[in-house]
């Protein structure tokens, strides 16, 4: 298939491109050409800004995977340009779209966040991250109908991705893992390679609708035990590090976000590798000399 990837050279996006090339697809990248420009020299590149993506009017594709859509006006402009130029639009969304942060077992039909009164669409802040994803999903659904899919994910782990990178680094260097979250905190994550394969599957098979692309719920303590099991004599976890790092609230006010129902994604083909395999691969990646990127939060 002829695939267009918006982004594609950072974190999860590079896994999407690697998976597409592995499967023999004809890939075009659209990005600013600033992040890892040396990657994928064999693919066609369209260089431009999301705010002015007119270069997208020069081609046609069977499907697009949007890895870089955050600001609503930019996604709207891309959608307008690509409406009659692509067969299917797969959008990388977020589990941050849900209105409730405490309700367990939410599926894709759960209520979504409203747009905050007076918030501008063209200025990105973390306060409107969730509402922006909701609005982008809505406008893509209105533009493409059954030709659109939205993939809602949270923590994404694995090579080139920041989440849980501190754990992989600690295990690789035989130091103590740290967690500012409480041991009983529920958490869901997905390996970047599994998520990339799922994004590609939805696009090539033209599957529509929203999907909670997350793994099973674990407690942080259970997850830590799984990660520690991949190296001999791993030190105990430090559950009270004095670090300025993104962490989950101890009062349970965000627990529902990591107890989502993922059955629709599993039925559509999401495949999840074991925690131990994820940890082992991350540790090996760090031991090979790689450094996880810093968290975005």
TrEMBL record:
Q: Which domain of life is it from?
A: Bacteria
According to UniProt, the name of this protein is: NAD-dependent dehydratase
